[in-house]
Design goal:
The chain is of the alpha+beta class. About 35% of the residues lie in helices and about 25% in strands. The chain has helices at about 1-10, 20-35, 45-60, and strands at about 70-75, 80-90, 95-100. The longest helix is centred in the first third of the chain and has 16 residues, at about 20-35.
Amino acid sequence: AEEVIMKLHGSGALSLFSEDDISTFRLVLSKLSQSPKTSFHGDHTSPAFSSYLEDRSKQVKALSVEDFCIWCGGWSGTSGGHAIMYIVERTSDTEVSFIVCNTGEGVGYRK
């Protein structure tokens, strides 16, 4: 993440952004780089899936207020797939927002 920011910052591509904007960009890139580790590939009836869900639950519980995590989701098969990204943001000590970022075909049909 830092390599990307330094390259863009040095080229002037980020010249219109404030240092606060750059800090936000750095945070989001860091969270995105961790998101592939949150994918599950396998049988949803397996003990591994239960363990996966426990890990995601712990991740949400560990979030501080205003912190967030990004998860990869969707489905894939031999004839294709559909990528979805989830953002979970801690909005208070007792609540989180669950945001679904849809991609690909059909994105215009969902609100």
